[in-house]
Design brief:
The structure is a single chain. Helices cover about 50% and strands about 20% of the residues. It folds into three domains: about 150 residues, PAS domain (Beta-Lactamase); about 90 residues, Signal transduction histidine kinase, dimerisation/phosphotransfer (DHp) domain (Helix Hairpins), CATH 1.10.287.130; about 150 residues, Histidine kinase-like ATPase, C-terminal domain (Heat Shock Protein 90, 2-Layer Sandwich), CATH 3.30.565. The protein has nine helices and twelve strands. Pfam families: HAMP, HATPase_c, HisKA. Keywords: Coiled coil, Kinase, Membrane, Phosphoprotein, Transferase, Transmembrane, Transmembrane helix, Two-component regulatory system.
């Protein structure tokens, strides 16, 4: 059965799988681009260098073989230039000559716009000549400047003042370079497409254990502590799976030990409470008799008797509360519901405990609800008793109905006092068992379980109870919300 994807499982546009594939392709692209760039550079240099070296060597040879007679004859010079141009290698040249104010060429015009002033200066100063690559109107040219010299000895030369220039188009070489670029591009794109396959395979092999780890973590979060991951291989992900399994096993053992200890503690509290009920019943009967005769005893003995009677009563309350909380822990508590008048039930609670003169009641009649009367009585009694002991007069009990966010009708009971309120650090623990807001207070009038029992009884009804301070920051307010279930509200 396939599980529906949750919000956290929806595919992200840049999830781990996408990032792994992109990283793999990026590495492949950088590698392919670097290789292509280096190959292109070497091939380009080889293509251009070969053509350039051939042209420079051929032109130098032609110039060195040139017989110069001074003064120059412009007509004869033009014929010489055309003869040199016909012998151009590896492509035909246009040859230009400059001698003082004389300008001649093998072309239709005596000068060329491709020859730069820098080449002219270099060619005149260097007896071995110079060359330069120039791009004019998108067309690449190789320009060579070579001075004509007289040899004065074995190695001596004397400039004649005549400088010859060769201009050669390099369109074929440029086309070859562009073909290299196209070949590199066309070779890189299929290579990246092919690299996508191992990228997907690698991402799948990496993500599989990650997905298994995510499923295992979610399974453990839902309470299945026996969840384990199958370990494959010996890489880092396999180490992670083994670490997870070891941690899960240790956690399972720790939770089992805690659950066993908690079960033993609950069983102990329940057993002790049961064992104490019988002797406490006898002690209560005796203390009641002693209370009746306390007035006939001497004062010191009377105080001792009354103290014993009061402490025995507290112990009896504690034992009963322990018995009650033990039933909740064992999930043995049951609801015996009946449709009752909620306001009348609260009035009976206040009357039975003789609180009617100490508590203000705002209890509209006609609100009927399906409740367990005994447990609802405990809820109201614990909240009102807590307000009377720890809050300040007057204490107010309010009853009303409300609608929940899902449209469910709720029975709302509020108990508010006029005391100093609950400190912010105490509020999160107010329903904890045996919690004392004042650590120095070792004795308490109640058992320390009243609010915890109240919360359990409310939960048993499917409701909630919360504690807060009044709007002005003074006085505690306890609000109980329970489903109305059935019943009618009077108009």
């Amino acid at each position: 059965m396939r599980l529906r994807r949750t919000a956290g499982e929806r595919r992200r546009p840049f999830g781990l799988r996408t990032r792994l594939v992109l990283a793999f392709l990026l590495v492949a692209a950088v590698s392919a681009g670097t290789t292509a760039a280096l190959t292109f550079r070497e091939a380009r240099n080889a293509v251009l260098g070969t053509a350039q070296d051939t042209a420079v060597a051929s032109f130098r040879e032609q110039v060195q073989q040139l017989g110069i007679e001074l003064p120059l004859d412009p007509t004869g010079l033009q014929d010489v230039l055309r003869d040199i141009a016909r012998k151009g290698k590896p492509h035909p040249w246009y040859v230009y000559a400059e001698y003082g104010s004389i300008r001649a060429s093998s072309a239709a015009t005596p000068t060329s716009t491709v020859i730069t002033p820098e080449l002219r200066r270099t060619a005149r100063s260097n007896p071995h000549g110079s060359f330069e690559r120039v791009v004019k109107d998108g067309v690449p040219y190789l320009t060579i400047g070579m001075p004509a010299v007289f040899r004065t000895g074995a190695s001596g030369v004397m400039p004649t003042g005549l400088v010859l220039f060769a201009v050669m188009r390099m369109s074929d070489e440029q086309a070859g370079v562009e073909a290299l670029v196209v070949a590199a591009r066309d070779g890189a794109l299929p290579g990246l497409a092919i690299a996508l396959v191992p990228a997907l395979v690698a991402a799948r092999s990496v993500l599989r254990p990650v997905r298994e780890l995510r499923k295992a973590a979610r399974s453990m979060g839902s309470g299945r502590l026996d969840t384990r991951i199958q370990v494959r291989g010996s890489d880092e992900l396999a180490d992670l799976a083994r670490t997870f399994n070891e941690s899960a096993g240790q956690l399972e053992r720790s939770v089992d030990e805690l659950q066993q200890a908690e079960a033993r503690a609950r069983r102990f509290a329940s057993d002790v409470s049961h064992e104490l009920r019988t002797p406490l019943a006898g002690m209560l009967a005796v203390t009641e008799v002693l209370d009746e005769d306390a007035d006939r005893l001497d004062p010191d003995t009377a105080r001792a008797v009354r103290l014993i009677s009061a402490e025995t009563g507290k112990l009896a309350v504690l034992v009963e509360d322990l018995m009650e909380i033990s039933r909740f822990d064992a999930r043995a508590a049951e609801l015996n519901t009946d449709e009752v008048d909620a306001a009348e039930t609260i009035r009976k609670t206040l009357e039975h405990r003789r609180w009617t003169d100490r508590v203000r009641a705002d209890l509209p009649d006609g609100i009927r609800a399906r409740l367990d009367p005994r447990r609802f009585d405990v809820v109201v009694a614990n909240l009102v008793g807590n307000a009377l002991r720890h809050g300040g007069a007057p204490v107010t009990v309010r009853l009303r109905t409300a609608a929940a966010a899902d449209g469910t009708d709720l029975l709302v009971t509020e108990v508010a006092d006029s005391g100093p309120g609950i400190r912010p650090d105490v509020l999160p623990h107010i329903f904890d068992r045996f919690y004392k807001a004042d650590a120095a207070r070792t004795r308490s009038v109640g058992s320390g379980l009243g609010l915890a029992i109240t919360q359990e009884n409310v939960r048993l009804h499917g409701g909630t109870v919360r504690a807060a301070n009044g709007p002005d920051g003074r006085g505690a307010v306890f609000t109980v919300e329970m489903p109305l279930r059935t019943g009618e509200t009077a108009a």
